[in-house]
Write a structure and sequence with these properties.
The complex is a heterodimer of chains A (447) and B (518). Chain A is of the alpha/beta class. Chain A is built from twelve helices and 13 strands. Chain A folds into two domains: 118 residues, Aspartate Aminotransferase, domain 1 (Alpha-Beta Complex); 257 residues, Aspartate Aminotransferase, domain 2 (3-Layer(aba) Sandwich). Chain B is α/β, with parallel strands linked by helices and 518 residues long. Classes of the chains: A alpha/beta (447), B alpha/beta (518). Chains A and B meet through helix 1, helix 2, helix 3, helix 4 and helix 5 of A and helix 1, helix 2, helix 3, helix 4 and helix 5 of B.
């Protein structure tokens, strides 16, 4: 077994040092009724070649995004990740390290997390960011829980433009942890007025920008309305690249910003692992969930970094902690940070412009397909179109032509017949004019 | 056998105060500024085309102010992060005996498999017809987890161990509510990981602590005394955080079930028993499994993890979404809380879970097979007991008898030396080892929790033993100063954590003169 260094001679010698006759003697505390005296019913060990063959066969049954014209988004986006990113995150000192409990030999992790926190604060326009959450969706629920703590209220108001999965997760927590989540109906038109629904019991209003259906929204009036009633404005961003082109939530009055950081540095990975961004105002920092890295000095006066404000966290506070979260998404945060370092100010802005330009090109091409209506007056790199027929079978028909043509809204809202004809489509810098032409042509054929 | 490196590092006296260089670098130990301090406007590490002129449709919400991101070229970025990596210690660097964290070797095959385009480059909302292989992988992983635990159901979506705890407690709450039995308390042993009470509280439960007996196990009598109709569940880690198996687990389960409550098992230490004990045979109702521990997906500097839960038949209907179902060789996803999943607690994470971790974990499982996984548990337990046996006269074991996958010591051996557990750990850093877990579990004074894992060779353990014994002697010989000054040989020496918390600096800001110029 290639991963196990002990030889039989080692094992015998070690048992003799321990002073027992057999390995089984070390398991003496296990009740006889639960002791397995033979291997479980699963295949025996395999060499690299065999494992590669088996898993390679499974992988080959999937249609990778890069092998077909690809227009799917809805919270996860296909971007080009520079080669240096994946090379660097696989350095063993990053890949095989752990939470930086011993800061003297974890300055690498601590420094990149400090850089990550700074980048996230800058992108979102907020004061302070944590060292990452599991992903954008779980970060969104953590933001609601934090708003409940800050305001000492227990009623969250969720926009109909918030990603349905994000809404579902808040709803799960609300049901089982005992708070209220009021859900506005799906907001395709982008004209919901949440201001009127905020009252003295509202802990927070949660909106997404760009919205799930793609529309961009000036949030300043909503922020003002929330603040007037003592509620917080939580803004979710599912496409982090948009922050290179769009006014950041921090400039529009947000109190907490959560984002899915997958778009920067991370592959699609069939939905995970991704990286959750979480940013807020300085005054709320002690109510934040998750790890925080802070600057300090060592005994020689040299600048260094440590995990800080840990008294918020479960390993100190146990049941009184701000969250039960223990890890973050360290390696995905590193990928985010490296990619964003490569992009820099100019690169991110250009990347964002490119995404928007491709989406504009796509919107014009689809609008020219008979029967197709583009519903958005504003968008970043994703928008909604209305088809003359239900979207789900159209997407299947496109897939049969090796085109991954967006997400039928019915996949996420299966019980809303009025949404059945809607298709969510996205373009990124990876989308070519040829891809767009093929998509539009195929759509004409299918409809 | 190579014991040549088992010597204790001695700092040459003439080098003690003489680390000064003109550059601030010290040989391979290279100082590195923040990326923000290397900014040169106009520099960029990517080449992207400028799009042809077009009319923006951003609805008047263009970002106008500078973001503030620094400009660097690719060689600078590569050098920057390479240098940072060299300030880190990983399991690739050496022994990382961080108790309860299971820092074992991360096979590189698993990295390669996760990066196959058929796994890494597929979108979670592609039509299921285009991701049959991905769903097959998830289904296969579920099958392995069910076989290894003996449990009838599994939910893969939790993103980490603590997330799995939350998911598991939610299923318990849902099951109790379904029978109209609102209970308010969860019992947690004193030795539990902090996430246990935090997860219970996050699900709205009051937490009550139960004491350990003198042997470091759950005190069954004390537990039974606390059991009433208000107890929803008990959360037990088995093997527990003292590195000991709970011998009365079956009796505990019986008592819990007789009281109408559920047994949650924290599976953080499943690596000690995988292939040898099936949790189902212990009477467990729900357990999370840290794929990054038992099944060796990389810890990555603190994530991403993955924390699937396995469930008993009683809790299976309440499992969180989504589910993968096989029908005649085709796979489909159940993503909605309706129909066959109407009783599910619902969704806890977007999409389908940590797929990248699933691929790595299954690759690890298939590489080991049923026989190898059993050997994993045996060797992990053997290595820990070898350390325990080799150190028991030099350190102070917290409990008598053999341990499971980790050996727990208290700070009795440091009594009156002026050296604390923390000082001892820091001295180990100078010797080239990552320290053990310190001050956890809380039930032992000045705890040192050592988990070598099965992927350490006997030679590696012997080096560690030699060093630990020598350090213990040094402490007992009165050389406290050596420990107080440690570590000396690291990129940074002891850091001022109090100052960091008192006036938190949590991000870089442009220095003041630059601000004035704006």
């Amino acid at each position: 077994m290639r991963y196990l260094p002990l030889t039989d001679a080692d094992r015998r010698a070690m048992l003799s040092t321990i002073g027992v006759a057999s390995i089984d003697a070390l398991f003496a505390d296990v009740p006889k009724a639960a002791w397995l005296d033979r291997p479980v019913d699963l295949p025996p060990h395999q060499g690299e070649l065999e494992v590669e063959r088996t898993l390679g066969r499974m992988a080959a049954k999937n249609l990778p995004a890069g092998s077909a014209p690809f227009f799917i988004g809805a919270g996860a986006y296909r971007h080009h990740v520079p080669a240096a990113v994946d090379h660097l995150i696989q350095r063993g000192e990053f890949l095989t390290s752990y939470t930086p409990y011993q800061p003297e030999i974890a300055q690498g992790t601590l420094q990149y997390l400090f850089e990550f926190q700074t980048q996230v604060a800058l992108l979102t326009g907020m004061d302070v960011a944590n060292a990452s959450m599991y992903d954008g969706s779980t970060a969104c629920t953590e933001a609601v829980l934090m708003a409940n703590r800050v305001t000492q209220r227990s009623r969250a108001l969720l926009s109909g433009g918030l990603h349905p999965h994000y809404r579902d997760i808040v709803a799960t927590h609300a049901r089982l942890a005992g708070f209220t989540a009021d859900m506005a109906p799906p907001d395709v038109a982008g004209d919901e007025d949440l201001s009127a629904l905020i009252d003295e019991r509202t802990s927070c209003v949660v909106v997404q920008n760009p919205g799930f259906f793609g529309r961009l929204c000036d949030l300043r009036a909503l922020a003002e309305a929330a603040h007037k009633k003592g509620a917080l404005l939580v803004v979710a961003v599912t496409e982090a690249v948009s922050l290179g082109a769009v006014q950041p939530p921090g400039a529009m009055g947000a109190d907490i910003v959560v984002a899915e950081g997958q778009s920067i540095g991370n592959a699609l990975n069939f939905g995970g692992p991704y990286v959750g961004l979480f940013a807020t105002r300085d005054r709320f920092v002690r109510q934040m969930p998750g790890r925080l890295v802070g600057e300090t000095v060592d005994v020689d006066g040299k600048r260094g970094w440590v995990l800080t404000l840990s008294t918020r966290e479960q390993h100190i506070r146990r049941e009184k902690a701000t969250s039960n979260i223990c890890t973050n998404a360290g390696l995905c945060a590193l990928a985010f940070t490296i990619h964003l370092s490569l992009l820099g100010e100019d690169g991110l802005r250009r990347l964002a412009r490119l995404n928007h330009a491709r989406a504009v090109e796509l919107a014009d091409a689809l609008a020219a397909v008979p029967g197709v209506t583009v519903l958005n007056d504003s968008f970043f790199n994703e928008f909604t179109v209305r088809l003359p027929v239900p979207a789900a079978p159209v997407v299947e028909a496109l897939a049969a032509r090796f085109i991954l043509g967006g997400v039928p809204v019915s996949r996420l809202y299966p019980d809303a017949p009025t949404l059945a004809d809607l298709l969510l489509v996205a373009a990124t810098e990876t989308t070519t004019t040829e891809d767009i032409d093929r998509f539009a042509r195929a759509l004409r054929e299918v409809l | 056998m190579d014991r040549s490196q088992g010597r204790v590092t001695r700092l040459a006296p003439e080098s003690a105060g003489d680390g000064q260089t003109v550059s601030g670098h010290r040989g391979l130990m290279l100082e590195e500024k923040l990326i923000f301090e290397q900014d040169e406007p106009g520099r960029c590490g990517v080449d992207l085309p400028e799009p042809a002129a077009f009319a923006s449709r951003l609805g008047g919400l263009e970002r106008k102010q500078a973001i503030g991101l620094p400009g660097l070229s690719e060689p600078q970025v590569v050098r920057h992060y390479t240098r940072l990596s060299q300030h880190n210690y990983g399991i690739d660097s050496g022994l990382f005996p961080l108790g309860s964290c299971t820092m074992k070797h991360n096979p590189r095959l698993n990295e390669r498999m996760a990066r196959l385009p058929g796994f890494g480059d597929i979108h979670p909302l592609q039509p299921p017809s285009t991701v049959q292989g991905a769903l097959e992988l998830i289904h296969t992983l579920a099958h392995w987890l069910k076989r290894l635990t003996g449990m009838p159901a599994v939910a893969l979506s939790p993103a980490a161990g603590a997330h799995g705890e939350l998911a598991g407690i939610m299923t318990i709450r849902a099951a109790l509510e379904a029978r109209g039995d609102a209970r308010r308390k969860i019992l947690v042993p004193e030795s539990a990981h902090g996430t246990n009470p935090a997860s219970a509280a996050a699900c709205g439960y009051a937490v009550e602590s139960i004491p350990a007996n003198a042997r470091g196990r759950v005190d069954l009598a004390a537990l039974e005394a606390k059991l009433d109709h208000d107890v929803a569940a008990i959360m037990i880690t088995n093997p527990n955080t003292c590195g000991l198996f709970e011998p009365e687990m079956i009796e505990i389960a019986a008592a819990i079930h007789a009281a109408g409550a559920f047994l949650y098992c924290d599976g953080a230490n499943f690596n000690a028993i995988v292939g040898r004990v099936r949790p189902a045979d212990l009477g467990i109702d729900v357990m999370h499994i840290n794929l990054h521990k038992t099944f060796s997906t990389p810890h990555g500097g603190g994530g991403p993890g993955s924390g699937p839960i396995v469930l008993s038949a009683a809790l299976a209907p309440y499992a969180p979404l989504p589910k993968v179902i096989e029908e005649g060789g085709r796979f489909r996803l159940v993503e909605q809380r309706a129909g066959e999943a109407a009783e599910s607690v619902g969704r806890l994470k977007a999409f389908h879970g940590q797929m990248g971790m699933f691929v790595r974990a299954l690759s690890y499982m298939m590489s080991h097979g049923a026989d190898g996984l059993r050997q994993v548990a045996s060797d992990a337990v053997l290595n820990a007991n070898y350390l325990l046996a080799s150190l028991k006269d030099a350190l102070s074991p917290a409990f008598d008898g053999p341990c499971m996958h980790e050996a727990l010591f208290d700070d009795g051996f440091l009594k009156d030396t002026g050296v604390s557990t923390l000082d001892f750990a820091k001295a180990l850093i100078d010797e080239g080892f990552h320290p053990m877990t310190m001050y956890f579990p809380l039930v032992v004074h000045g705890a040192l929790l050592i988990e070598p894992t099965e992927t350490e060779s006997r030679q590696s353990l012997d080096q560690f033993i030699t060093v630990v014994r020598a350090l213990a002697q040094r402490a007992q010989a009165g050389d406290a100063a050596h420990f107080h000054a440690a570590p000396r040989l690291t990129p940074r020496r002891r850091l001022d954590e109090t100052a960091a918390a008192r006036k938190p600096v949590l991000r870089w800001r442009a220095p003041a003169p630059l601000k004035a110029a704006e």
